[in-house]
Amino acid sequence: VGLTNLNRQLCALHSTLGRNKSDVMAERILDINPSCHVLSIPELYSEERKERFFSLSPDYIVDAIDTVSCKLSLIETALDQGISILSAMGTGNKQDPTRFRICDISETSGCPLARVVRKELRSRGILHHTVLFSDEPAVTPLPLETPPPGRRSIPASLSWVPSCAGLMMAGYVVRVLLGELGVRG
Fold first, then answer.
1. pLDDT-derived band of residue 144, with 50, 70 and 90 as boundaries?
2. What number is the average pLDDT over the span 118-145?
3. Helices 112-123 and 68-80, axial angle in degrees (round to 10)
């Protein structure tokens, strides 16, 4: 949990700064329902770690990875293994959560991340994939900190935007798992 998470992530509080997000969220889930079985894996997904991740046999994957190469690896591996996956596209620099929708990546427009992911998936022979995206034009934030190496900028997030996207994704996955929606990967 870092300072930049404070405005938009449920697990981010001054008391949780520096702790693993997965551990903080596991504690929260167990505090809500002590009967839950929660497995906290405080690791970032990467190509090198994918076998460990997929050995857990997830029922459904919600992808909120920022790094394009890791996002592509996760999507491609999940689809190859027949595991349903829903990927978040760009939510940074957006202001209107009513513009989010869940659809096939082929139906996206106006989202730079979706454009890159769509192109890269197409080059891998993947033409269809379920995503959450917004067609809202991104605003340009004031640069408050220096971007890390390899990034041109750090996207800004308003507190309500990522949370609305996350709730939409969670609701979609629960409805698929309950059989209320057709399975789309």
1. low
2. 87
3. 50
Give the residue carrying structure tokens 């008391």: 15
Q: Are 89 and 113 in contact (CB under 8 A)?
A: yes
Bridge pairing between strands 100-104 and 130-134: antiparallel
Residue with the bigger pLDDT between 153 and 171: it is 171
| Residues contacting residue 80 through CB under 8 Å, at least 6 positions apart | none
DSSP state of 30: H
| C-beta of residue 65 within 8 angstroms of C-beta of residue 71 | yes
| 7: pLDDT strictly greater than 70 | yes
Q: For tokens 């990522």, what's the residue?
A: 162
Neighbours of 90 (CB within 10 A): 21
Which residue stretches of 41-181 are H helix?
50-54, 68-80, 112-123, 160-177
Instruction: Give burial (CB, 10 Å; 0-12/13-18/19+) of 141.
Output: middle
Helices (H), 64-111: 68-80
**Site of tokens 């002590």:** 34
Give pTM, 2 decimals.
0.83
Q: Which residue has the tokens 């139906």?
A: 107
The phi-psi region of residue 8 (left if phi > 0; otherwise alpha if psi is between -120 and 50; otherwise beta) is alpha
Q: Residue 105 and residue 122: Cα distance in Å, rounded? A: 10
The answer to whether residue 62 scores a pLDDT higher than 70 is yes
